[in-house]
Amino acid sequence: MARVGVFVCFCGANIADYVDVPQVVEEVKRIKEVKFATEYKYMCSDPGQGMIRDAIVQYKLTSIVVAACSPRMHEKTFRKALSDAGMNPYLLEVANIREHSSWVHQKNKKAATDKAMDLCRMAVAKSIANEQLHEISVPVTKRALVIGGGIAGIQAALDIADARIPVVLVERSPSIGGKMAQLDETFPTLDCAQCILTPKMVDVASHPYIELIPYSEVIELQGFVGNYKVKIRKKASYVNFKTCTGCGACWQKCPVKVPNEYNMGIDKRKAIYTPFPQAVPNKPVIDAEHCTMLLKGKCGICAKVCDKGSIDYTMQDEIIEREIGAVVVATGYDMWDPKPYEEYGVGRFKDIITSLEFERMVSANGPTNGLPLRPSDGKVPKNVVFIKCVGSRDEAKGIEYCSKICCMYTTKHTILLHHKVHGSHAYVFYMDIRAAGKGYEEFVKKAQVDTGTTYLRGRVSKIYKKGDKLMVRGEDAQIGQVVEVEADLVVLATAVSAPKDNPDLARLLGISYDKYGYLSEAHPKLRPVETAKAGIFLAGCTQAPKDIPETVSQASACAAKVCGLFAGDTMKKDPMISTINNEYCSGCQNCLNVCPYGAIVTDDVPVGHGSKDLRTVAKINEGVCQGCGSCVAICRSMAINLAGFTDPQIINEIVSI
Amino acid sequence: MEAAIKDQLVSIEKPELVAPPDWEPVIMGILCNWCSYAGSDLTGTSRIQYPPNIRIIRVPCSSRVDPWFLIKSLQTTADGVLVSGCHPGDCHYISGNYFARRRFLVTKKLLNFVGFHENRIQFSWVSAAEGPKFAKVVNKVTEDIKKLGPLHLYKKENFEKK
Predict the structure, then answer these.
(1) 8 Å CB contact of A70 and B60
(2) pLDDT at B161 over 50
(3) What is the ipTM of this complex?
(4) Residues of chain A with CATH 3.30.70.20
(5) Given an 8 Å threshold on Cβ–Cβ distance, is B60 in contact with A510?
(6) Mean pLDDT value of segment A416-433
(7) Among candidate residues B17, B49, B57, the one with its CA nearest the CA of residue A655
(8) Is residue A574 very low, low, confident or very high in pLDDT (cuts 50, 70, 90)?
(9) Is A630 an 8 Å CB contact of chain B?
(10) Which residue among A513, A532, A633 sits closest to B65, beta carbon to beta carbon?
(11) A228, A501, A514, A554: most buried by Cβ count inside 10 Å?
(12) B4 within domain boundaries
């Protein structure tokens, strides 16, 4: 006979305000299997867990129900409490009476209480059918995959590799460096991005534990934590990196000119190119979309000028396979396209540029040698208007969130303008100045004093042309009047947006993403770098907009998680996987077809005890099974069961209310 | 052909019976752990209110849901069933929800054939980020089932009385 203990949590006032907890306790006491039931203010606290431990011993309980928050929150906590009391941790069930009752039925205490009782009854019924389970040990492949070679990917790769764990770093573009390589100086210290980034890029290339695979993409991920297999498509670069010395003769002579992505299209690059002079690896690739040799078979100059004969027009994409144990996703962000701001004349007026275009122009290695120039006539602007929150915090344009970095980089831009163009004046239209961060507020204050920038609190409603100037009309909410500013150049602080390929990548990896396309962390506060899929971690802006210090912190956190995962030779795996009862298995092999992991194989067993005749049955590979339960539902002879979610457990839940 | 068969079917629904005024339907919600259950948690964390009729069962994946669970629910405790999983293509277990989708279409047809109103068995896709959508789905399902009234025929108490 089962002896169930039920522990109902107040969760402070979170549950107790909307559910009559003592009444729930009284009600569950009436269930005949329940031998002990009690309530406490915080079950997850140490005294709360202590009550569970004591009751297990005192009342000889055989299963435990905790009615509290979602099992996704504290199931692990309570399982540990069971272990501590010498009980199998999988004899626990959690009744989710917070997220599923008290928080969603706040206007009807009786209904919420009734529902909480039902949820408790269901959990009690399920727990009666719970079985003792034991964690499974599986071997670990100690090699990590890092997707994306921006500052997040670089930092994660270096930190993991420094722990002597091999890393495969996959970067889509020809060079690592990401968005940070495009920046001039970085807030709040104004140190040059190149100076602090390029040494790290070189470290990546020379690190004995890092395998850098540039100009490539992940196309398939199979397996499970500790035992993934990844397929990487290495795009044809048409240049043999082994023999190329990076002398640059090819791109100097190439006749085809293409807008330069690194400089936001302000100048041109060649069809054979290295993205920027400090690129790592510093080897050129041929852009197959523009090379006339590859398109029409005419030209071939680069092959002629290459002393080493490194140019190979017949090169094909290559598929590389690696076995890895963990993945760090660091795909960064895209700059949001401000086209929807028609009232600003985006696209019509040449002298409206985005912040990253401005950044490239004022950058020492930029297309204009560090001077901001008006795209229309190439003159140096005197009056520059910066407009913040273009896209961000604007529901009408589809982005509700704050992009977090624009306030700071706009401040930086006013300083850079002040330094580079003497006699210039900056105007900033802003909604709020959000300068939360170490040294940020001081940075903004100092910049305001030093540069004499005019800050106007309000939105811009219209930009129109007057002669060769742009007239920016907006509101100054602090004096409650419409103001007009004559501008030579307008810089839009465009929003940070999720990489547009993130949903595809998320599907490929089997992780989730939010409505904007940012990849989702397992828990917003307590598991910010893990995804819901074990062994896959997130670093940098692919999870949400963040600045460089935060990105680096998160990348290092990922590295710590990966190192923790690889600390032992084997790792513990959740025992909630399928099991097959050979007695019932008819060998129909339907389960083989539905298993997404190929975890089921066939096996031959004797027909009867001691018999020499064999028959075919299905067999589960414990290390591979992830516990989805597809095979259980497809099995017509009911030979398969999923530990933790067995048929008796679920049917008990259904019939218990 | 199908329509002709439909006309001859005997429905087990009894729309002529009036439910008692305090009657509230019970809806069994079977949710996958990774998307819909997480989504329903988000509904809670966002304090979005919905009718208290649903009782939620957690399963790892919508493909774990055996048609038996639906039949057993309607037979014993529930007036309607909602099964919800990850959006097609977003399954945590790669392809589980596709199997679930096919299986549910067949189950729904079967239960409809047996005489249950089609609204008694409902499916939805709710992702972990769609807290408001989960509330919307529960609202709709609850309304639908309320319109249909109690499921009289196969209830546990009817069996026990006999």
Answers:
(1) no
(2) no
(3) 0.92
(4) 578-655
(5) no
(6) 95
(7) B57
(8) confident
(9) yes
(10) A633
(11) A554
(12) no
Contact B99 A630 (CB under 8 A): yes
pLDDT surpassing 70 at residue B160: no
Asked if the Cβ–Cβ distance from B52 to A115 is below 8 Å, we say yes
CATH code (residue B100):
3.40.50
Domain with CATH 3.40.50 in chain A: 4-128
Architecture of the domain made up of A144-235+317-333+498-565: 3-Layer(bba) Sandwich (3.50)
Quick one: CA torsion of A578, A581, A582, A587, rounded to 10 degrees? -60
Query: pLDDT grade, residue B162 (50/70/90)?
Result: very low
Which of A401, A468, A456, A403 is closest to A431 using CA atoms?
A456
Token pair 């889509």 is found at A172
* B55:A122 CB<8 A: yes
CA distance A335 to chain B (A): 23
Cβ atoms of A472 and A460 closer than 8 Å: yes
| Contact map slice: B 78-137 vs A, CB within 8 A | 78, 86, 89-96, 99, 103, 127-130, 135
pLDDT tens string B130-145: 999 999 999 999 999 9
The domain containing residue B40 runs over which residues?
24-161
Say which of A98, A532, A654 has its CB closest to residue B76: A654
CB contact under 8 A, A104 and B65: no
Whether A510 contacts chain B with CB within 8 A: yes
| Residue B155 pLDDT grade (very low, low, confident, very high; cuts 50, 70, 90) | low
Q: In whole angstroms, what is the distance from residue A376 CA to residue A483 CA?
A: 25
Please name the fold of domain A578-655.
Answer: Alpha-Beta Plaits (3.30.70)
- Classify domain A336-497 at the CATH superfamily level: FAD/NAD(P)-binding domain (3.50.50.60)
Q: Characterize the bridge pairing of strands A210-213 and A167-170.
A: parallel
Question: What would the pLDDT profile of A78-114 be if each residue is shown by its tens digit?
Answer: 999 999 999 999 999 999 999 999 999 999 999 999 9
Q: Is B139 on the interface with A (CB under 8 A)?
A: no
| Pick from B103, B14, B102, B97: nearest CA to B62 | B97
A515 near B CB under 8 A: yes
Calpha distance A582→B106 (Å, rounded): 28
Torsion A482-A483-A489-A490 (CA) sign: negative
Q: Mention the CATH class of domain A4-128.
A: alpha beta
Q: How confident is the model at residue B6 (pLDDT cuts 50, 70, 90)?
A: low
CATH 3.50.50.60 range(s) for chain A read 144-235+317-333+498-565, 336-497
Asked whether residue B1 is domain-assigned, the answer is no
The rounded distance, in Å, linking the Cα atoms of A339 and A52 is 59
B2 within domain boundaries: no
Look at chain B and report how many structural domains it folds into.
1
pLDDT in tens, A125-176: 999 999 999 998 888 999 999 999 999 999 999 999 999 999 999 999 999 9
Q: Are A85 and A49 in contact (CB under 8 A)?
A: no
Q: Do A654 and B44 touch (CB under 8 A)?
A: no
Q: What's the CA dihedral at A59, A63, A67, A69 to 10 degrees?
A: 130
- The stretch B46-68 carries a mean pLDDT of 95
φ, ψ for residue A389, nearest 5 deg: 55, 45
Tell me the pTM: 0.78
Sole residue written with tokens 């964690």:
A135
CB contact under 8 A, A104 and B135: yes
B160 touches chain A (CB under 8 A): no
Distance in Å, alpha carbon of B15 to nearest chain A alpha carbon: 25
A429 forms beta bridges with: A387, A456
Instruction: Say yes or no for a CB contact (<8 Å) between A626 and B93.
Output: yes
A-chain residues within 8 Å CB-CB of B66? Answer: 632-633, 647
Are residues A225 and A185 in contact, defined by beta-carbon separation less than 8 angstroms? no
